[in-house]
Amino acid sequence: MTHRIAIIAGDGIGTEVMPEGIRALEATAKRFNIDLEFATFEFGSCDYYLEHGKMLPDDWFEQLKGFDALFYGAVGWPDKVPDHISLWGSLLQFRRRFDQYINLRPCKLMPGIKSPLAGRKPGDIDFYVVRENTEGEYSSVGGKMFEGTDREVVIQDTVMTRTGVDRVLKYAFELAQTRPRKKLTSATKSNGISITMPYWDERVVEMAKGYPEIAVDKFHIDILTANFVLHPDWFDVVVGSNLFGDILSDLGPACTGTIGIAPSANINPEGNFPSLFEPVHGSAPDIAGKGIANPIGQIWSGAMMLEHLGYKEAGDAMVTAIEEVLSEGDATVLTRDVGGEGTTASLGKAIANAI
Amino acid sequence: MTHRIAIIAGDGIGTEVMPEGIRALEATAKRFNIDLEFATFEFGSCDYYLEHGKMLPDDWFEQLKGFDALFYGAVGWPDKVPDHISLWGSLLQFRRRFDQYINLRPCKLMPGIKSPLAGRKPGDIDFYVVRENTEGEYSSVGGKMFEGTDREVVIQDTVMTRTGVDRVLKYAFELAQTRPRKKLTSATKSNGISITMPYWDERVVEMAKGYPEIAVDKFHIDILTANFVLHPDWFDVVVGSNLFGDILSDLGPACTGTIGIAPSANINPEGNFPSLFEPVHGSAPDIAGKGIANPIGQIWSGAMMLEHLGYKEAGDAMVTAIEEVLSEGDATVLTRDVGGEGTTASLGKAIANAI
Ligand SMILES: CC(C)[C@H](C(=O)O)[C@@H](O)C(=O)O
Ligand SMILES: CC(C)[C@H](C(=O)O)[C@@H](O)C(=O)O
């Protein structure tokens, strides 16, 4: 069975780490006898926008919908195209039109990676953030009135649907069930955001009835961010709305020191459309073009993709290879952000070899 | 000149730390010859709600508006009254009706307080979070449709006005001007929240024109929370919307290890209504009634109140007294949360003595 993967490298370091992601995937495919077929697309980047006046061609949906997965680099280059145009014109379209309603990110202390938190070591922190990925605070409903005057008022709706909330909660509860600690934490702010957030809480209570073996707690987002720093060991599966999930899934990897190398999966669990896998880091215009970007986020995203395609063992092997190369700590191999003097390619090759 | 202070202790440990806050204020008033007059109110607590069916009496506005400041403990006790009722019925009313449009919180590494961040010491972290405190994501506009069905949809508006955004930005820029580093960081999410947040960014650019000597940068809230953990030394004055400010002003003190002792000021800069001073910590039902709550947040809030009333030297003296007692590290005096075996009263008395 051939798995067709669409490659969109995007902008900046996205184009530099992508080849290493592919290298690692090819090595894994060979070892585990998986049949991957890659097709590369130029759209979904700011350069494409500058040429065509849009981030994607009109028929992007038709072009991509038949693939088994999308492997994305990074998008955005504010000096060329404002972020809200480049992101809404690409990544956020994929998430929404392909109904990738789960954004999943592991927060894990890795060997050889320095955590900014005092006294934490590998094994201490290991949790997932499950983020709602299609609705909530990221709406396109709203507008401006009395523009340009002192009475100017700008309004944007947060929109939560029962369908949207329940399905992300269901996914999170089922994920918690696969974990040894069977614990789920809900991010809320029902003490301040008085309409949507109490609704979110209600749906959590309702959903929890179907999962009596899961220990459920909730925190308001303000103190929850504090607890990520103070008690990262408390967490197992954390579920949040689009915005809260966004925040927590950057803060979590920051606490484990892995923000530059963390992966993320935008998943359509039913599989009626392709899911999308991308590193957490952005396009990093400041270091783009130097060949020094760390490719681990891209490679680790590839591991999540293989797991999603049904090859858990192969995905695990990729993560193990990453951990091995990090543990070895060879400065000629590692990139600068993790204490080495190597390049994107030297680190990518070492991981491919380890696989 | 007599300054009339309204005291509202609220719930849980609010009622325990308040007497220590008053003790410290009285000591300071004596030393600096300030004339303070306290009046105590029972409303604004969950017990009041249970008795009267509302958090505040109908004429609360009339009763309180003539005071020079409100000194608040903590409100909320979810087992008695749901948070969105207790908070919206009290604290959030004060903030809104008294137009306390600034929420100001210092994030400062203090001597003797362990930061959860590796390798940081007093002096390394010292910044302010300025939060918009009356509008934005904390709106009361919205509702539910198709209730109880699969089509259920819940909507809540974020509302930003030019007046509301500009005045908090102005305050933040002027605060930055009083600081040696003259740096301002704006919290945004204009790449995802595509209507209100680009507007916020626009107003920052506009306001910055009037303050050419201030160095301005901005971060999206997700990476900004990460940077609080990774680079807390980058920040000087950080300004954010109601929700973003809320998150950052818990996360900031968490990073400095001071979340249990940090103060906050809800300020009406024009002074046409009283400002409100309260510790960052909540009512902490879990430790209420044991006499072990740390009163520093309440005392430090008192210091901010004196500074607001025009007694900067007196406020500074209170903070110095706190720092002294923390530095001494006498375990019989300090409460458990900061490594001692003392009580709310032992710590409160020590600080009052130091003053
Ligand atoms: C209790 C809650 C409504 C409040 C807020 O979010 O404003 C609190 O978290 C705060 O920051 O003062
Ligand atoms: C780039 C931005 C729109 C995006 C988001 O907020 O969803 C990013 O931060 C992410 O988390 O994937």
TrEMBL record, chains A, B:
EC number from the UniProt entry: 1.1.1.83
Cofactor(s) it depends on: Mg(2+); Mn(2+)
Span of domain Isopropylmalate dehydrogenase-like: 4-351
Keyword Transcription regulation carried by entry: no
SUPFAM superfamilies, per database record: Isocitrate/Isopropylmalate dehydrogenase-like (SSF53659)
Keyword entries, A-Z: Manganese, Metal-binding, NAD, Oxidoreductase
PROSITE patterns, per the entry: IDH_IMDH
Molecular functions (GO terms): D-malate dehydrogenase (decarboxylating) (NAD+) activity; magnesium ion binding; NAD binding
One Pfam family recorded for the sequence: Iso_dh
Family affiliation: Belongs to the isocitrate and isopropylmalate dehydrogenases family.
PANTHER family reported for this sequence: D-MALATE DEHYDROGENASE [DECARBOXYLATING]
Identification of the protein by name: D-malate dehydrogenase (decarboxylating)
Organism: Vreelandella sedimenti
Higher taxonomy: Bacteria, Pseudomonadati, Pseudomonadota, Gammaproteobacteria, Oceanospirillales
